[in-house]
Fold Large ribosomal subunit protein uL29.
Amino acid sequence: MAATKIGDVRAKSADELNTMLLDLRKEQFNLRFQRATGQLEALSRIKQVRRDIARVKTIIGERSRSAATTA
């Protein structure tokens, strides 16, 4: 799976972002578990997932801050 583009993340709804964040965190957990047991082959995927999580959380934060300033 390729890295998520920021434009793709911005196009998603709040529910889709929360679902995506949950899926990414599950994947991160599984990758860490595979690394601990020595089964992980693509170490770069851990970094990629971590950055995707940061992208999603950034967009969620931006939206919550913009909603708070307009309210």
Remarks:
- DSSP finds three helices and no strands in the chain.
